[in-house]
Every structure is written in structure tokens, then in C-alpha cells.
């Protein structure tokens, strides 16, 4: 029996499926690298290996864009709708490092997340293709993107706040802040830096926009369950009536 993933890769989307699965895996690798770097509090400029890794991954992202462009039947439409993903696939940090362009450590930290936007796009595509039900696909995609946003926001908040905010001594507190902020409940941790305050507002706004989707999804599940139950009862009733009529007919023909 074939799995949903094998059906997705080999039958449904062909080369596009394979490319996006590879992009997803590379993006996960980038996430792990950034997380380890953040947790160990390593200065980014000392991580030459990370620069090489990101360069090769961004190169593959650009290769994916070019290949899909030539495979597309509507090249102008593809270019117009996917151009932004070419822009975010460019290895900006490597270019700035090569030309010795100086930025603050905070800006360089933000630049490291640019290729992950491409990975998030691939993740949304993969989740959507693997979810055959439209409502389930929408719910899963939004949930995945919400959790990813919370995680990245907590990383950024930790990097910016833990040196100047006594309420953020470790990453666990930053993660707690992000989850409580996105639920709009709030926590006892408040931002000190300007970027942290902006993240607080953005996460709260994101939570207000996305949590109603969960309510709609649960409501659709309840309505579908009620409809299925009604159809089952109706079918059972029709079968009973048909069986009764059949028995009556046989009795009349065989007195």
C-alpha cells in the first residue's frame, strides 16, 4: 500500500513534488543550524561553515526557481507570481560578506531568516498537497505557519532581549512569551527593545487573525459529523422500509 508521501512525490506532482520536498528538508536543516547557533549564543561572524551551508542551500533554491520557470507552460505568469521567491532565495549574507558590507549583529541575524521564508512556502505547499481534504489542508497549513512564526519570533526575541531584559534569562522564557502573546492572553514578560515590542504587536495581531480559523474548522467538522449521522439514519430507515415492503410482497405472492 502506497503512502501519501510516495503518492505525492511520484504520482501527483512529479518533479515539482521532489524539488519541494528537498527544499523542505534543506529548510529544516537551516532551522536546526540557526537554533543551535542561537541556543549556544555563538556570534554569527565566527560561523564560516554556516555561510557556506547557506550559500549552497540558496543556490539550490535559485536552481529550483529556474528549473520550474523553464518547465512552466505559462512562463510570464510564473515569473510574475514567483518572483518574490527568487528574491528571498538570494544569499544576501554571503554577498555582503564578500564585499565587506558592515551591518549590526541584529540585522545580520534577521537576514539569516530570509531563506527560511522560501522554506515556509515549500512547507505550505507540501502540507497542502498531503492533505486531501480542503478544510483539513487549510487548517493544517495555517497551524504549521502559526507554529513556525511563533518559533522564529521566540528565537529573535531571545537574541534581542536576553542580554538587556532580566525577565528573559533563557530561551524557555522567550518561548513562553511567544505562545502567550500569540494567544493574546499575555504574560508577565514584557519587551524592552524596540524590535521586541514590534514582535509583541505582530504576534498578537497574528493570533487574532488565525485563531478564528480554528473555530471555523471545528464547526465544519461538527456539521460534517451531523450530516453524516443524518444520512446514515436516513439510509437505515430507507433500508428498513424496503425490507418491510419486500417481506410483504413475498407474503402476498406466497399465501
TrEMBL record:
What are the GO MF terms of this UniProt record?
A: voltage-gated potassium channel activity
One GO BP annotation is:
action potential
Report the Pfam families cross-referenced here. Ion_trans_2
Asked if Transferase is a keyword of the record, the answer is no
Subcellular location(s) of the protein: Membrane
Protein keywords: Ion channel, Ion transport, Membrane, Transmembrane, Transmembrane helix, Transport
Q: Which Gene3D superfamilies match?
A: 1.10.287.70, Voltage-gated potassium channels. Chain C
Residue span(s) of domain Potassium channel: 146-223
Q: Membrane topology per the record?
A: Multi-pass membrane protein
Q: Which InterPro entries match?
A: K_chnl_dom, VG_K_chnl, Volt_channel_dom_sf
Transmembrane regions listed in the UniProt entry = 15-33, 53-71, 83-103, 109-130, 142-160, 198-222
Work out whether the entry's keyword set contains Transmembrane helix.
Answer: yes
Q: Where is this region: Disordered?
A: 236-255
| Record GO cellular component, one term | voltage-gated potassium channel complex
Q: Which PANTHER family match?
A: POTASSIUM VOLTAGE-GATED CHANNEL PROTEIN SHAB, VOLTAGE-GATED POTASSIUM CHANNEL
The name on file for this protein is Ion channel
Lineage summary: Bacteria, Pseudomonadati, Bacteroidota, Bacteroidia, Bacteroidales
